[in-house]
Design goal:
Layout: H1 15-36, H2 45-75, H3 79-100, H4 109-137, H5 142-158
Helix pairs in contact: 1-2, 1-4, 1-5, 2-3, 2-5, 3-4
The structure holds fe (ii) ion.
Organism: Massilia cavernae
Region (Disordered): 153-184
Domain Hemerythrin-like: 15-134
Length: 184
């Protein structure tokens, strides 16, 4: 019982477990969509599901863009891997932006969700293989990083503004890396 007032309680997942849990949730939501696509959205279920997909993907890509990707980029020597992942995130945001202006029943609505799902599935596969291995081998403090990701995720879910990430807290020993934040 030593928690200070205001201290955030975060789930005890390390960074890769937390990101994997997000991936599994998103994969499940896209599977649910497969059962609903090509049918009329009379009860609004499809629209609500797609809203949830867009929210989950947007929050997940944001915590990766703000925290995980800059940190990983600074400790591995593979700019191509990080550049491609960043472009894939931009592609997902583009499709989410399109879906935000569409309604179930619109031309290309189902096709847009399907393409988003295919692109996300490819992106997740690459991330869980190449990036997760790189993160494990880089000597990062994955528990501390997991706590930071969880806290930021809670903030985004609560609609709170961005905060500076004390990235040095999770840097491997001896790293002179500075906190980095991509341009908005
Ligand atoms: Fe991810």
């Amino acid at each position: 019982m030593n928690d200070k007032p205001g201290k955030k309680i975060t789930p005890a997942l390390d960074a890769l477990e937390l990101l994997k849990a997000d991936h599994d949730k998103v994969r499940g939501l896209f599977r649910e969509f497969e059962d609903l696509k090509d049918i009329d959205d009379e009860d609004g279920r499809k629209g609500r599901l797609v809203d949830e997909i867009c929210r989950e993907v947007a929050t997940h890509t944001m915590i990766e863009d703000e925290i995980f990707y800059p940190l990983l980029r600074s400790v591995i020597d593979d700019d191509d891997l990080m550049d491609e992942a960043g472009i894939e995130h931009a592609g997902a945001r583009e499709l989410i932006g399109q879906l935000e202006t569409m309604f179930p029943g619109d031309d290309h609505y189902d096709a847009t969700v399907t393409v988003l799902g295919e692109e996300i599935a490819h992106h997740i596969e690459k991330e869980e293989c190449d990036m997760f291995d790189a993160a494990r081998n880089a000597g990062l403090d994955l528990d501390e990083l997991g706590a930071q990701l969880a806290t930021r995720k809670e903030e985004l879910d609560d609609g709170l503004p961005a905060q500076d990430i004390p990235a040095e807290a999770v840097a491997p020993r001896g790293s002179a890396r500075q906190a980095q934040r991509p341009p908005n």
